[in-house]
Write a structure and sequence with these properties.
150 residues, single chain, 5 helices, alpha+beta, binds zinc ion, three-stranded antiparallel beta sheet
Length: 150
């Protein structure tokens, strides 16, 4: 049985439900530079993320998954934001998202529509749902970021 959805601000609820019902960038890229599957056993959420890189930037990104609305809409919104970002910028975006979910004041300019998930910080049980796609992203990019940072 799915958990009841947290009571978010109406606009944010619309954004989340819209991406849950009509996920963007749904599919699997093949071949892909990053292909990683992660799950959140607490809620039964799953995300598989495939990314194609070109010149240190994310050229294409798609995901497949199943689970609660928070996990799937977070993945969908994430893929919309990633195209064209340098690997390091994607990592910074993930960190900004993570900090917001932990309850820090959000970097509104960087996060944009992702602010829809700010309310999740009040529901510790949903935090893993919201960050699942971002965990997958950061883990998948780990090897790719190494070179850029040096
Ligand atoms: Zn979930």
């Amino acid at each position: 049985m799915p958990n009841p959805e947290p009571a978010f601000d109406e606009l944010y609820r619309e954004i989340i439900l819209d991406h849950y019902r009509r996920p963007r960038n749904r599919g699997v890229l093949a071949p892909a530079d990053v292909d990683l599957h992660q799950n959140n056993p607490l809620c039964g959420d799953e995300v598989r993320l495939t990314i194609r890189l070109k010149d240190g930037r994310i050229e294409e990104v798609e995901f497949l998954g199943q689970g609660c609305s928070i996990s799937q809409s977070s993945a969908s919104l994430m893929t919309e934001r990633l195209k064209g970002l340098a690997v390091q910028e994607a990592d910074q975006l993930a960190e900004a998202f993570r900090q917001m979910i932990r309850g820090s004041p959000p970097d509104e300019e960087r996060l944009g529509e992702l602010l829809a998930f700010q309310g999740v910080s009040h529901y510790p049980v949903r935090v893993k749902c919201a960050v699942l796609a971002w965990d997958t992203l950061q883990k998948g990019l780990e090897g790719q970021v190494g070179g850029a940072k040096g």
